[in-house]
Amino acid sequence: xxxxxxxxxxxxxxxxxxxxxxxxxxxxxxxxxxxxxxxxxxxxxxxxxxxxxxxxxxxxxxxxxxxxxxxxxxxxxxxxxxxxxxxxxxxxxxxxxxxxxxxxxxxxxxxxxxxxxxxxxxxxxxxxxxxxxxxxxxxxxxxxxxxxxxxxxxxxxxxxxxxxxxxxxxxxxxxxxxxxxxxxxxxxxxxxxxxxxxxxxxxxxxxxxxxxxxxxxxxxxxxxxxxxxxxxxxxxxxxxxxxxxxxxxxxxxxxxxxxxxxxxxxxxxxxxxxxxxxxxxxxxxxxxxxxxxxxxxxxxxxxxxxxxxxxxxxxxxxxxxxxxxxxxxxxxxxxxxxxxxxxxxxxxxxxxxxxxxxxxxxxxxxxxxxx
Amino acid sequence: xxxxxxxxxxxxxxxxxxxxxxxxxxxxxxxxxxxxxxxxxxxxxxxxxxxxxxxxxxxxxxxxxxxxxxxxxxxxxxxxxxxxxxxxxxxxxxxx
Lengths: 371, 96
What we know:
heterodimer, A: Rossmann fold, Dna Ligase, domain 1, D-amino Acid Aminotransferase, Chain A, domain 1, four-stranded parallel sheet, B: mainly alpha, 5 helices, 3 strands, disordered N terminus
């Protein structure tokens, strides 16, 4: 396999322990691969995104403007970063930024960014409000789901066959398990305020959570699938521990989905095995999950596969599926010099501080350089 | 024994987990058992380990009970009760 020397920009450097973004894990997969010798540029949206400060994984870090700032602000910042870092490949890792990035692809390509992303149509086809159709394609079940724009539904839904508990979800992010109409209305307002309309209401399914991640080649094939069962979750339902599995039903369902949508890029299929032993399709996420480092654990480094595809290379053959590999997540504190934090807050760009002198490397203020 | 076979079904497929399910289980000497399809793990004691290995070779309850009766000093009825209880627990822990 040819060693990749590309400079890669990765978004999603938020890594809050109870709900981490995937960016840091993607960076870790690449950094630990002998087949990747390039540079990694971490991109975040908040000055407290931990990945921005982790120089084991990011050679440089920048803030991006929030999507609400508009396309021009995003393109301006990416242009500035591109001029400094000469990035070859851009790997967006967050659901919410994907529609915008896909729309901006011509401009991004013109700036020199290579990507391996789904099309707008593919993104639309896997929207959460289309889950029943997708579940049919996959040959599995799906909990009842409906988009709503008014909280009134939550007070009369029981007349229409719904029953609490329900899950109130945002189109991109956010999910609350609610047990009453009042609780649901509260969740509806929070989700709408953060993620806009429509808000989705899904019938709660009790059971065990299973996930699959892979890369779609854009021609209907699913590359390097990695499956896991969640063994422990955070209060937000995010995997804190999991174990790789080899389950033909989940694989067949995911393969059928990728084929039907001709999915291009990374994806995560989330299912719940209900108390009757049937799989229920919960979500299809258009990105790697935060537990993507398990792909390294089972010998299928999927972020590396994505880079190969973005570079126009044919990915190497994958080793056989390996069940029984665990991950257990943990949280660490990173000590950050105030000057680095300041540079992120004030300039949107991290200045690496030399700990021995406590002076900024980038600003050239080391002793001896002052004159 | 032949008479016994006439009275009982020749296959106890309703009782046992499917052979393909049992075959896929990763069973270690320590008694740690992992089901690669469901991701579940559980533990069995020494007797359970003997029984699990027996189940991989033999899917007839009467034969299993006969083998265990020779190996363990216990009343046949007690052995049968324990075996059925073990198989029931096993079915709960593996995906059929």
